[in-house]
Amino acid sequence: MSLQNIRLEVMQTLEKNINLFVDKFLISPEKIWQPTDFLPNSQSDNFIDEVEEIREISKELDDDFWVVLVGDTITEEALPTYESWLLDVEGVSQHNSEGGDNGWAKWIRAWTGEENRHGDVLNKYLYLSGRVNMREVEITTQHLIADGFDIGTARDPYKNFVYTSFQELATYISHNNVAKIAKEKGHKLLAKMSKIIAGDEMRHHLAYVEFVRQIFNYDPSEMMLAFQQMMKHKIVMPAMHLRESFEAKGTLFDQFSVVAQRAGVYTGFDYVSIIEKLNNAWQIDKISGLTAEAEKARDYLMKLPERMYRITERIIIPDTKFEFKWMNPIS
Question: Is 49 marked active-site?
Answer without folding.
Answer: no
